[in-house]
């Protein structure tokens, strides 16, 4: 069975800010959540060229992230999943503002695969009807889900937030991430999509909550933080 979801996530920042914010937030969360032999390591990080992303050959950054997640698999899912499911890989081709990902279980890609295509659009409020140019069949299958990052945060350095009801309608700066999620799994498609949605919302909430940590950093400074943190991630997920 194939499940097709389209997430729409608006954030109060520019396109350039979003690029460094995603990098900073990922490595910051990864270091915090990697411990006791579990977490994530970045096994591949290199330039790519002429890879098709959103229907056009593009250049950018390819990364492979390897997640060791055995204890985080919910008890209700364990009977349906193979032992190999304690390891999940994420391959990403990032040609910002376009990207694509494949999330899969090594050796079981035909049975457990989540494909994600994303486009970040500046000055956009999540109203595009068919940003991915889907055909009629896929448009019928597609389910749209608007993810609200919440209103609890107030940035002291940028004076952005709190984000009250209907903030999207007139806020500047603003950017919208359109994310097409294609779940191709042998079992538990809906549960896997719900968990992916939960993790995506958590990530982008943290992108905004951490704004005062990254807003004054340059892109090169964020790249340096990511590079320095890779060794720490390796140490944190080594078996005890």
TrEMBL record:
It comes from the Eukaryota. Residues 3-228 form the Phosphatidylinositol transfer protein N-terminal domain. GO terms for cellular component: cytoplasm. It holds the Pfam family IP_trans. One of its GO terms (molecular function) is phosphatidylinositol binding. This is Phosphatidylinositol transfer protein.
